[in-house]
Amino acid sequence: MNLQAGQQVVLQRDGVFQLLTVLRERGYRVIGPTLGRGAIVYDELNSGADLPAGWTDTQDGGNYRLKKREDNALFGYTVGPHSWKKILHPATRRFWRAKCDGEGFKFLDEEHEPSKLAFVGVRACDRQAIAVQDKIFIDGKYVDPVYKSQRDDVFIVAVNCGQASGTCFCVSMGTGPKATFGFDLALTEVLENGAHYFVVEIGTARGAEILGSVPNKEANSEQLAAAKKIVTNTAAHMGRRMDTTGIKELLYRNYENPRWDNVAARCLNCSNCTMVCPTCFCTTVEDVTDLTGESAERWRKWDSCFTMDFSYIVGGSIRAAALARYRQWMTHKLATWIDQFGTSGCVGCGRCITWCPVAIDITEEIRAIRESDAVGKV
Amino acid sequence: MASENKPIADDPIPEPMRPRSYRIQRVRQETEDTFTLELEPADGAKGFKFEPGQFNMLYVFGVGEVPISISGNPSSPETLTHTTRVVGTVTRAMRQLKRGDLIGVRGPFGKPWPIEQARGRDVVVVPGGIGLAPLRPVLYALTAQRKQFRRVALLYGARTPENVLFPKEMKQWRDRSNFDVHLTVDRATGAWRDSVGLVTNLIPRAPFDPANAVAMVCGPEVMMRFVVMELEKRGLTDDRIYVSLERNMKCGLGFCGHCLFGPTFICKDGPVFRFDAIRHFFSKWEV
Amino acid sequence: MIHTLEPIIREHPFFKNLAEPHLKLVVGCAKNVRFDEGQMLFREGEPADEFYLIRTGRVTIEAHIPGRGPAICETIGEGDVLGWSWLFPPYRWRCDARAQQPTRALAFDGKCLRGKCDQDHDLGYELMKLCAAVMAQRLQATRLQLLDLYGVRK
Question: What is d(CA C126, CA C145) in angstroms, rounded to the nearest whole number?
Fold first, then answer.
């Protein structure tokens, strides 16, 4: 059957495993969800057997636990501590190596062979997060060439969530639970009445071509309805909500709201939120040399606005108080990001709530600020 | 929320994370803690054009990199001039460099001072302390095209008479460029014959028409806050006042996030800002 | 001679809100004065019976420090008002003032005005407000000077 973008077909459980095999045969490194270190993380998948079948997660403020499911769902969980920035915007990267002789700096060429990558199991919130980071690294005056070369041609298999976690709020942020753009294939896993199948929406010609090698059938109206019902059900069971009406102006006029003191008293400035957030992009530049001083390297590493060093200039840190640093993170994420990049920085994935050791909840903080909003104060 | 002035050379530089090799031509101690480096490309290539207010990331091999405003003449881009204080590891290492040593340059970055917007108007230049360094290229540009501007007032505040930067050029600007030059120091020593007091004192009687003037202010943020207040008391509106801000910078390209200031990246939306664009955030603590 | 001073006083921003009868009183207490470069206007501790409106030139406000000599606190220039000690007991100057350049000023008979303020409280209120404004501005300027903003925090 000649498949095309826009079509919806059905795969059986085996078909998904075959899809991964086909990708690997075509030279893709397949990255997807797998069990690791007490969570569901993103790592290289050697086969479909690496998927965390039959596992789910329960999440709440400061809490993440794995739990066995009663069925054998392949994608029956939400998002863990990893996001796709782990690969596209890695935690450490070398910019260059150089030697210095009397004539000048001699740069040793970096080999930047981008891997052919396939991301399997990209949730809608995370797909939006990739788009948000694209705006930073590709759409500005300066383009990050390594990001772009890796980002181009990533094969994306999205998954529409079959359940929401206790900290999910993609519906509030308008980013899910259904993936609506930027995928080669999008799967909705259906388990009902003993059947276990996947409705696959084909996003691109490339996706159609790959899918063509896997046994599939055109989706009938019942199957389409079942998939739709699952997504609707997920949307109705979000763990958190955030009212984003006028959120930019709200935060712009509430820099002095006493709620910041309240959250500052709880926040440990541990920077977990910035590490798990799929859109946080801040990095630092480290220059290192060897003992002879004749060769040097420049590295880029993840950084966090929660550190004292982050805003240090001569005389001291601009954001010395913990209050200022929490406020910076939240105001950037939900407000100033909009002026900078045209979208919110938040995709409603809930990771910051789950992985905060003291369970600070960004949705609750917005609610509290809204309630105590000093209207009219500039 | 970008500042409304656009540089002429708006193209991104190629390979922006790689420092170009430059050679030190001259090191000059200006005051006790301030020094100037004059650089030329080590590979014999042409110097690049820059606009007043832009900065470079200067790299001391193996030590580190810091953002320093260009303090030289934009009409003479063959020599790249930077004036800075010794305030940390990199600047301390930079001070040890001698004529002939190599130094890395990435740039130019940032939005420049509004020379265009000042044409046909009175210009008020208000540097405080080391703030004269990023404004000196403006003074060169105003001198080179003097007839395009009406009155030019230079109101310069320094800490003590010994900390007055570029005293010889100060004299030239007063005598030959036809600027109204007014100096003041916070603390007088020796035989100081000019004003004593913060530079804000010079504004009430500065020679400019608030209905037709542009002000460019650079110095510690506290000083800029009060200078803007005095300028506005004179009737200058905030869409005619420009300030230059400073934050921690690591990449200069808008990627690392260190220079975020409210909705702006100081490295690419600034460092020069029209005051009305940043007024709201400027008044807040620890933003 | 007093008639030529009136327009100068009337137009000066310091006096612009003064009501007509008060203005006439002030004009009546004014005279032109000149100081050569280096000449002292007044010294710390002397009776403060005058205040000045600087018309041209520059005046240094100083404190004499044994072993260091005269230390300049700040400078007063054209258009500035100098002197508020005439209105507050013990009516003695709290600092030295020296003409840094040849200086022309209007001097106002503070002792006479003090008497008139005691009799006419409305006049007193107006002059007190004017003096308070000068002091507030000086205080603010001094605070900023004290911050040593251009120094580097180590």
Answer: 29
Taking only the tens place, the pLDDT of each residue in B76-119 is: 989 999 999 999 999 999 999 999 999 999 999 999 999 999 99
Q: Domain check: are B83 and B131 in the same one? A: no
- Give chain B's domain count: 2
Residue B122, Ramachandran bin (φ over 0: left; ψ between -120 and 50: alpha; else beta): beta
β-partners of residue A160 are A188
| Counted domains in chain C | 1
Can you give the CATH number for the domain in which C56 is found?
A: 2.60.120.10
CB contact under 8 A, C150 and B201: no
Token pair of A217, please? 């059938």
In a domain, C122, yes or no: yes
* C100 in contact with chain B, both atoms CB, cutoff 8 A: yes
Neighbours of A9 (CB within 10 A): 23
What is the rounded distance in angstroms from the CA atom of residue B189 to the CA atom of residue B161? 7
β-bridge pairing B180-185 and B152-158:
parallel
CA–CA gap between residue A18 and residue A8 (Å, rounded): 18
CB-CB contact of C35 with C97 (8 Å): no
Q: How far is A346 from chain C (nearest CA, A)?
A: 38
Give which of C69, C30, C64 is closest to C46, Cα–Cα: C64
Whether residue C75 and residue B220 make contact (CB cut-off 8 A), yes or no, is no
Question: Nearest CA to CA, how far is A335 from chain B (Å)?
Answer: 8
Predicted pLDDT at B1: 36
For the CA atoms of chain B, what is the radius of gyration? 18
- Whether B205 sits inside 8 A of C150 (CB atoms) is no
Q: Which residues contact A94 (CB under 8 A, 6 or more apart)?
A: A110, A297, A298, A299, A300
C134 lies in some domain: yes
Q: In this complex, is the C-beta atom of A316 within 8 Å of any C-beta atom belonging to chain C?
A: yes
- Picking from A94, A271, A318 by the largest number of B CB atoms within 10 A of its own CB, the best residue to mutate is A318
Is this prediction's pTM over 0.90? yes
Q: Based on the domain organization, do B199 and B160 belong to the same domain?
A: yes
Q: Does A313 touch chain C (CB under 8 A)?
A: no
Contact B197 C141 (CB under 8 A): yes
CB contact under 8 A, B62 and A252: no
Q: Which residues of B touch C150 (CB under 8 A)?
A: 128-130, 157-159, 163, 186, 219-220, 223
pLDDT at A315: 82
Contact (CB, 8 A) for B37 and B96: no
Please state the ipTM of this predicted complex.
0.94
Is C77 in contact with B223 (Cβ distance < 8 A)?
Answer: no
Query: The domain containing residue B90 runs over which residues?
Result: 2-109
In a domain, C153, yes or no: no
* Tens digits of residue pLDDT in A51-65: 999 999 999 999 999
Chain B / chain C CB contacts < 8 angstroms:
61
Q: B: neighbours with 3+ CB pairs under 8 Å? A: A, C
* Residues B33 and B79 both lie in one domain: yes
Q: In a 3-state reduction of DSSP, which class is residue A130?
A: helix
Cβ neighbours of A101 in B, within 8 Å? none
Q: How far is C143 from chain A, CA to nearest CA, in Å?
A: 20
Q: Output phi, psi for A352, to 5 deg.
A: -65, -30
C152 CB near a chain A CB, below 8 Å? Answer: yes
Alpha carbons within 13 angstroms on the beta-carbon side of residue A301 total 10
Residue B214, CB-side half-sphere exposure with 13 Å CA sphere: 19
Residue from B226, B37, B240 nearest B119 by CA? B240
Co-location of B60 and B96 in the same domain: yes
**Residue pair A123/A161 in contact by the 8 Å Cβ criterion:** yes
Question: pLDDT, tens digit, for every residue of A296-321?
Answer: 999 999 999 999 999 999 888 999 99
